[in-house]
Amino acid sequence: xxxxxxxxxxxxxxxxxxxxxxxxxxxxxxxxxxxxxxxxxxxxxxxxxxxxxxxxxxxxxxxxxxxxxxxxxxxxxxxxxxxxxxxxxxxxxxxxxxxxxxxxxxxxxxxxxxxxxxxxxxxxxxxxxxxxxxxxxxxxxxxxxxxxxxxxxxxxxxxxxxxxxxxxxxxxxxxxxxxxxxxxxxxxxxxxxxxxxxxxxxxxxxxxxxxxxxxxxxxxxxxxxxxxxxxxxxxxxxxxxxxxxxxxxxxxxxxxxxxxxxxxxxxxxxxxxxxxxxxxxxxxxxxxxxxxxxxxxxxxxxxxxxxxxxxxxxxxxxxxxxxxxxxxxxxxxxxxxxxxxxxxxxxxxxxxxxxxxxxxxxxxxxxxxxxxxxxxxxxxxxxxxxxxxxxxxxxxxxxxxxxxxxxxxxxxxxxxxxxxxxxxxxxxxxxxxxxxxxxxxxxxxxxxxxxxxxxxxxxxxxxxxxxxxxxxxxxxxxxxxxxxxxxxxxxxxxxxxxxxxxxxxxxxxxxxxxxxxxxxxxxxxxxxxxxxxxxxxxxxxxxxxxxxxx
Length: 550
Ligand code: AMP
Fold this sequence. Notes:
By secondary structure, this protein is an alpha/beta fold. Helix content is 28%, strand content 24%. Adenosine monophosphate is lined by residues 189-190, 236, 306-310, 328, 330, 332-333, 337, 363, 424-426, 438, 441, 530.
C-alpha cells in the first residue's frame, strides 16, 4: 500500500522560492570583485535568478547542458546557482586554482556551453578561451563599466557582459517541475594523480544534504543567524551553505575575493556574522590578524572547520581566547560534501574542558543520511573501539554512485550483505560512541616495520608548538624500518625552534616509536587547489633525505 501524501519533487528552485516567499527581506551581502559591499534581498535575488534562466534560453543552452562558473562567493555566483540548476541545466563550478591545462580538460570533458567568470580571472580566461572545444559564450560577471578594454575583449570571441545579459532578460519565468533525480551541478575532484573526475549531484541529493547540514549538530543555522561561507562556491557547493541559507532564512554574507584575515574580520563584525565555515589554513590567517591586533569577535559564536584536519590547538584557541565554538567536520567532494560533524552528546556535559576538547577534535559522528564503517584490508569490518584503524567506507543518498560519464568504472565495493559502499581513501578509527578520527589519507600513511603511523596525529602535536605555523608529516625511506616519519615544518614569522626541541616536544604525548626521526624546516608547505597540504610534492622533495637514524 502506498502512502497518500503529495508527490512534490525535491528541487533546488524550491529553496529560493521558499526564501522569496517567507524571508523576502532577508539580505545577501557580498564583497564584490569591483571592491564594493553589495546588498540584495532574497526577493530581488530570486528575480535575478529567473532572469538568468531566461538568458540561458537566449544563449541556446538547453536543459541538461552544462553552464560553468569561474567565480568567487558573491550574489552573482548565487544567482547562477539557482538560475542554472533551477532551470534544469547543470551548474559546473570550476576551481580557478587548477592549472589552466586542467581547466581546459574539465571544460571539454563537461562539454561546457558557457563560462561565467569574475574579472579577477580575466587573464586565465584569455589563456584558456582559444583552447576549449565547446564553450560558445564567455560571460564576464560585471557591469559594462568594468568590462575589459576593446583590444583585449576582441581576443575572446563570444565575450558578453553579465549585467547587460540580465537587463535584457525578463524576470517572468516559472520554475519548471521535473524529476528530482535530474542532475543539478557538477564538481571535479582535485585528485593528486591522473585527470580530475566529475561528481554529478542531483536535485534530490542536494536538497537532502542541505536539510541534514542545517541540523543543530551540524552547521545548526536558523533565520536569526548570519552565515558567512569562507569555503568557496567553486568547490563542492560551499558545503551546501548557498542552499542552506535560503532554506533556513539566514542572512548570507559572501566574502568575494577578500579571504585575508583583515577583510574577513571586517565582514564578520560589520555584518554581525554568527556562523562561518572554512578550511584550517584560512582560519590561521584570520586568527593571526585577530591576535596581532588584539581584536575580539562580537557576534561570531560558531565556526565549522574541515577540508583537512583541524589541529586541536586551533579549536582550543577559538574556544578559550575568543568564545567561538568549533564544529570540526569531515567530508569530501564525492559526499556533497558533509559526512560527519563533531557535536557533543548529552553525557559530554560532565566532561572537563580537556575531555570536551578531545571530543571536538575528532572528525565527528555521522550525520543522519550517512552511514560509515571501517574495514581491514580483506574487507572485514573492524570494531568501534577507538583503537582499530582501517579503510573508511560510506554510503547514503548524497554519496556518489559513479563518476561523471562512468569514468573509472564503479568505485563502490560490496559487503557480505550485498550493500555497496564508497571507499573514501581515508584511514580512520571510530570510538565506541561513534566519533570518527581520520588518521591519514591511505596514500599518506607511514608504514614503519609493517605498522601504520598516522601522520595527522603527529601533525596535530607539532601544530600545538607556539613556533609552528604549519606542519606536514611524511614517510621518509629507512633501511631497516622501510619508512619512518619525517616532520616538515614551516615556522611562524619571527619565531624560532630547533629540530631537537621539536622532537622533545613529542615526549609523553605519543607512543615513543611514533616520534618523528627527523625535522626539516621549509619556507612554505605546498597547498593544493582546495587548501590541502600536497604531501606527494613533499615526498618528492625529500625523497633523498637521509634520516639520522638510518
Ligand atoms: P575534497 O574532496 O577535496 O573535499 O577532499 C576530501 C578529503 O579531504 C577527505 O577524503 C579527507 O582526506 C580530507 N578531509 C576533509 N575533511 C577533513 C577533516 N576534518 N580531517 C581530516 N581530513 C579531512
